[in-house]
Amino acid sequence: MSGEYLLTQVLNGVSLGALLFFLAGGLTLIFGLMRIVNLAHGGFYLAGGYIGFATVTATGNFWLAFLAAGASIALLGLFTERALLRRLRGQELPEVLLTVGVATVLGDLALAVWGGDPKSVDPPAAIGGTLQLGELPYPTFRIFVVALAVVVGLGLFYLERRTRLGAIVRAGVDDRETIQALGIDINRVFTGVFIVGSLLAGVAGVIGSSFLGLLPGGDVEILLLSLVVVIIGGLGSLPGAALGSLIVGLVQAFGTSELPQLATFIIFAPMALILILRPSGLMGRPI
Amino acid sequence: MTAIALPRAVSPGRIKIGLLVLALLAGWALPYVAGPFAVATATLALIYGLFALSINLLAGYGGLLSLGHAGIFGVAAYGVGYIASRTEGGYGAQLFWGMAAGLAVSLIFGVMAMRTRRVYFLMVTLAQGMIVYGLAQSLEPVTGAENGLTGVYRPAFVLEDWQFYYLSLAVLAICAGLIQVVVRSPFGLALRGLADSDTRLAMTGYSVVGHRLLGFVLSGFFASIAGILYAYNNEYVSPSVAEFNTSAQAILMIILGGVGTLSGPVIGAFVIVFVQNVLSLQIERWPTVMGLIFILMVLFARNGFVGGVTRLWNRYVRRREEP
Questions:
Q1: For chain A, what is the domain count?
Q2: pLDDT, tens digit, for every residue of A47-97?
Q3: Domain of A165?
Q4: Nearest-CA distance from B273 to chain A in Å?
């Protein structure tokens, strides 16, 4: 194993982790507040990616793709939360099952509209090419994604810990009744958090479209990785999602390059270990 | 898990036995009155019905909904397929390894999922199922990846579709009987107790983890039988057996028919399999239709068919008793 190989794999792992954080961060926030595991999150990702692809194909503008995907998936999130999930508020299992239904519909509609051939989006020239890291040339786009994930992660963390809105969200996690008694409309907070999570998933779709490609079944694959991230990190914990993303990204990068046939199996190992030793995840609260 | 309300078994036993006899008679008569397409479709419904029953054993009574049972179903099918196509082992070896693989995976999954509850349990089992699917697709030497495993053949005595239909019917009837025994046993009661309140059961000295694990492995046992039947019925095993959709569809069958009932999942399986086989000839977008049914059922009819009928029946009985 040469140093260059190691560095490449580490960078691949970190950038995949960055992509996963966009999904896992949203999943974990939504769960922390609403106790909903949104299994349509993978569908949101894939739909966002395809909308981004369509935007780039139509306008040639990558930044517009970000905007279009983020906005339309945020709207989709608004609809899912307001029109569907709200009717089942507080009923854990039906809520999850509902999102299974949404995921099935989304995946199939994406297949109907965009077909089964892989699609991908090229990043714009400004962040296209490669960056020279010492001796090693590395795609600039992936480094851009890592930087974006760090900024978004810190932003979310700041929002959650330091602002009034974050305080409301945290209080909502702890005690829904009391916060409502204080005159805060918790339903609006729920909707807001769900929209933020969906928006991040949509944006992640555009990012994913240019470094993993878009394919039917991609929704399930990314959902699996995101689930493993939140299981490892601990449901509801933002720092846990960050740490979990990094771990899963690295394990996945080394796994796919060393033992491609067993790659899906290898991420099983850290998950199994965590579940047996610490079922609530590295940074989650006891369950 | 209060979400899955068990419909109260108030309807008199005699009616139930009568309905059961009727169902068995109808099952026996089907090949005489229906064409080959209906028989083949019904066979599939019986197999998926058994698979749905295995998930329901855990979900309807133990309050633990597994989203990854297609993994167990698939591993058992692959066990049969691997022995049949790669080692040319006989039927004894195929059955043995199919079941052994299914049980081993159930045990491993069970041990991992045991200490988790509720939504965590959902996520863990979902990830487990997806991992089996991923392996099925990538582990070419064992699973044949996308090409799947061919070379699985039905034993001589069930070569014809109608023969295999009767075999599936018999296996389902026996398994349903066994599940009924399990549910009625002290173990079954403890399992239901766990669903209501595991802390209370732990306080009274029950091993929560032990009961859950046994429940999981038992459920895996029935899922494996369904997987083995599937492999022979299809005479081909491909990654789609372990797909998440296979689990989701089975859960839809349970919801449609009635969670926590014995007949519900089988009825649900017949409805879904027949609707799918008829609709997929006409419209291409079956998964969309399935997803929409899923959403509508969850939103508006969570007690399912059997739950709804039981409720109506109870209302009728109550009205008669209180004039």
A1: 1
A2: 999 999 999 999 988 889 999 999 999 999 999 999 999 888 877 778 888
A3: 3-277
A4: 17
